[in-house]
Amino acid sequence: MFVRGLKRKCFDGEEDIEGTLAGIKAIPSYNLQRQSLLDMSLVKLQLCHMLVEPNLCRSVLIANTVRQIQEEMTQDGTWQMINTQSTGQASLDRLVSTDILCRSSRDQAEGKHVPAYGTFNKDFESDQAQDSSETMSTAPSVQAPRNLQSNVWEMDNPQENKGNFQKSLDQIFETLENKSPNSVEDLFSEVDNSYYDLDTMLTGMMSNTKMGHCDSLETFSSPTNTASNSNCKSDLNDLDHIVEILVES
Amino acid sequence: FVGAGGGNDIQWCFSQVKGAVDDDVAEADIISTVEFNHSGELLATGDKGGRVVIFQQEQENKTQSHSRGEYNVYSTFQSHEPEFDYLKSLEIEEKINKIRWLPQKNAAQFLLSTNDKTIKLWKISERDKRPEGYNLKEEDGRYRDPTTVTTLRVPVFRPMDLMVEASPRRIFANAHTYHINSISINSDYETYLSADDLRINLWHLEITDRSFNIVDIKPANMEELTEVITAAEFHPNSCSTFVYSSSKGTIRLCDMRASALCDRHSKLFEEPEDPSNRSFFSEIISSISDVKFSHSGRYMMTRDYLSVKIWDLNMENRPVETYQVHEYLRSKLCSLYENDCIFDKFECCWNGSDIVMTGSYNNFFRMFDRNSKRDVTLEASRENNKPRTVLKPRKVCASGKRKKDEISVDSLDFNKKILHTAWHPKENIIAVATTNNLYIFQDKMN
Predict the structure, then answer these.
(1) In which element (H, E) is residue B375 found?
(2) ipTM for the complex?
(3) Which residue ranges run through the membrane (chain A) (predicted)?
């Protein structure tokens, strides 16, 4: 990311955010940024789910971040996937990817139908115009108290995707707990099911979504060409390695 | 601290650098811990390859009164080897997470070193004499034919070249399900604690087959896990008191006299969140990566991602001082999350009770003087490696026009991080570890 000597535009102060409405089009909306952060976090969780010895502290912190985002999105009423007006292809990829990440492999095995993520919340449409002018640093839905996640889990919600999401998180922690001799098979069986999708998703992310989204989350400058995300690339290499092992065995 | 001001300011000079010169860093050479012993004569480092290297300070050279003794390699040994946990099919890294010295009781030195799962007590002893003149053995060890012995002699010790031997005296294993992040020797010098992500165990140095669990924060249902232990330390004077820090930015002080299992803290140190700075990264950057008591035990210092906080043990609701290490990174948190740098665990250390030191990126490290309220940023780099070169303070330009000699945030090298630093217990000598090099700096004398 920070390649030595690579100059990037320096964004000057936060006053400009509220000021220039003309620049709003170039600035991804708060919800897009939040979604991007959610995607990134889920990728990180999945990848450390597959690593040999996950760093528990890191996993817990990422999982908590994911829960926070999900909590906020639930309060917003935007938990259903955003269907952005911008590039249709990019948004579709993201829809697919998040859906798959949140779907538990058990459901896939059972052939359970997971409701399509594409449902568009009418209420959200009006919210979005409002959201786009908000900055990342002020969490908009702070009015509702940030309760224990048990609140969220207890909420009566017919949407399956939330349950699936929780299952993914649960799986991650269960795996850490799992001391049975079959744990290796379990570990890799989960990888096996969702592997192709993860690969597709990662490829999709690399080509379609600009890493510049991340910059926008902090600085709101127009996404500049950042250095390639070596972290993501090395994760892809790990993935290749795992596939090699699976294929050979 | 260099700059206008009193003669009490310390001017730091380069003294030595240890380690490979080339930029291509071998993974095994990455330094993972640095620790002075109680007298400061010995300096130990642990690395990712499981090795421990101990440096010894030369006796002060009478002719060179303007510099203190140099540190030279005293002993090198393989402390931990990579292992394989067959039950979980997981590799156990040999990386040395922490080294802690025991106070010296006799001619030998003792230290505890730990990787993710196993703690070992090492004895480092010198041998500079050997017995010669046996009656039944030749000098090379072969046995003599007794019938050829016509006279008897008494074997004597003769001097030999100094040999430093390290031998493992105790191995404390199989007590941690999760990764050990801290070890701390009690002030009774008989017991010590080891902490992993969810549990803290108390050991007796003589007993390896059992330990007592004194803290357990593992939830019954792992799905409910939201907080882990990040560091723990015994109080320097009170042998029943210890603290542990968490990933949520809290510190709990526990008294072992209160109950066998210290799940209820005696004190809880937590600073209320600043609502104006709240973001999705607030929790991650509040996670405490290190906690250290001051030498007196009255204060403790914690390090989170962006700051160092000093706490008075008598006040739980907020720290008495907060120092910003690299506040300019606050606007870059998302990128740092993306490349995982936000999870870097920086350590911190005290000089007595007055000055604190911690590392940053770009091979910078920072010092904060609690009395004068002044701070300085210095760099560990081979560019300054002439002995007694005074280190020039560095400055990072957060925004706007970059002045000459300043570095802009975007030019910082986030692969060059200083996670481990140590301060000599008695003198102004500091050891600063970059990725694979150990720098030693001293204050300028006269």
Answers:
(1) strand B375-379
(2) 0.92
(3) none
First to last CA, chain A: 36
pLDDT tens figures, B129-153: 999 989 998 888 889 888 988 999 9
- The DSSP symbol for B83 reads E
Domain range enclosing B272: 36-124+164-378
Within-domain flag for A57: yes
Q: Does A139 touch chain B (CB under 8 A)?
A: yes
Contact B335 A34 (CB under 8 A): no
CATH of residue B176: 2.130.10.10
Structural domain harbouring A47: 26-98
**Residue B429, in any domain of the structure:** no
Better pLDDT: B419 or A208:
B419
- The region that residue B359 occupies, defined by phi over 0 for left and psi between -120 and 50 for alpha, beta otherwise, is beta
| Residues in B touching A68 (Cβ below 8 Å) | 280, 283
CB contact under 8 A, A183 and B88: yes
> Does A229 or B343 have the greater pLDDT score?
B343
Task: Note the pTM of the prediction, 2 decimals.
Answer: 0.73
**Number of domains, chain B:** 1
B338 within some domain: yes
CA separation (Å) from B255 to A23, A218, B178, B252, B429? 57, 43, 23, 10, 34
Does residue B181 fall inside a structural domain?
A: yes
Query: Would A76 be classed as within a structural domain?
Result: yes
Q: State pLDDT tens for residues A206-246.
A: 334 333 344 444 433 333 334 444 444 555 566 666 666 66
